[in-house]
Write a sequence for this structure.
C-alpha cells in the first residue's frame, strides 16, 4: 500500500511539473498593469475635460478619447517603465520616465488634432475651451500636460508595483 501511494505522488509531481504555466515576464506584467491603470485614469481625466463643454456629447467624447489615449499611454508607459526601472528603479524613476514619455506622446497627439475639431470647439462658445483651442500651440500644450499627468501616474504605480526591496 505504501508503494502505491509513493508511486502516485511521483506521478502527480511529474504531471504537475509538465503542466506548469508559462512564466510572464516583468515587461508583459508592466504593460498590462499600465494599460489598466491608464484606461481608468484616462477615463477620469477625459471625462473631467469633457465636462468643460457642458453638454452630454462633449462628456462622452471626452470619456471615449480618455479611455483610448489612456490605454495607449498606459501600455507604452508600462513597457518603458518596466524596461528602465525594472525591479530596482523605484517609484521616482517610474515617475520621471512616465512624465517624459507622457509629455512626448501628448505633444505628438496634439500636433495631429485636425483644424475642424478646433473650429468646432470655438463654435461651442465656452470661454475656457476657446482659450485652450485658440491655436495649435495651445492644443499641443493641453495634450502634453494631460498625458504628462497620466504618464506620471502610470509610471509611479507600475514602478512601485515592480520595486523589489533588497
Amino acid at each position: 500500500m505504501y508503494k502505491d501511494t509513493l508511486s502516485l505522488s511521483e506521478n502527480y509531481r511529474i504531471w504537475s511539473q509538465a503542466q506548469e504555466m508559462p512564466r510572464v515576464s516583468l515587461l508583459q506584467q508592466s504593460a498590462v498593469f499600465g494599460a489598466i491603470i491608464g484606461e481608468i485614469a484616462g477615463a477620469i481625466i477625459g471625462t473631467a475635460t469633457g465636462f468643460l463643454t457642458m453638454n452630454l456629447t462633449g462628456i462622452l467624447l471626452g470619456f471615449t478619447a480618455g479611455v483610448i489615449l489612456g490605454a495607449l499611454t498606459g501600455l507604452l508607459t508600462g513597457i518603458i517603465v518596466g524596461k528602465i526601472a525594472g525591479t530596482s528603479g523605484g517609484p521616482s524613476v517610474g515617475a520621471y520616465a512616465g512624465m517624459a514619455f507622457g509629455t512626448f506622446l501628448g505633444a505628438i497627439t496634439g500636433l495631429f488634432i485636425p483644424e475642424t475639431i478646433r473650429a468646432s470647439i470655438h463654435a461651442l462658445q465656452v470661454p475656457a475651451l476657446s482659450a485652450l483651442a485658440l491655436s495649435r500651440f495651445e492644443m499641443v500644450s493641453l495634450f502634453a500636460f494631460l498625458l504628462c499627468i497620466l504618464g506620471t501616474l502610470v509610471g509611479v504605480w507600475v514602478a512601485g508595483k515592480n520595486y523589489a526591496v533588497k
Summary: Helices lie at 2-18, 26-50, 56-84, 90-111, 115-124, 127-132, 136-162.
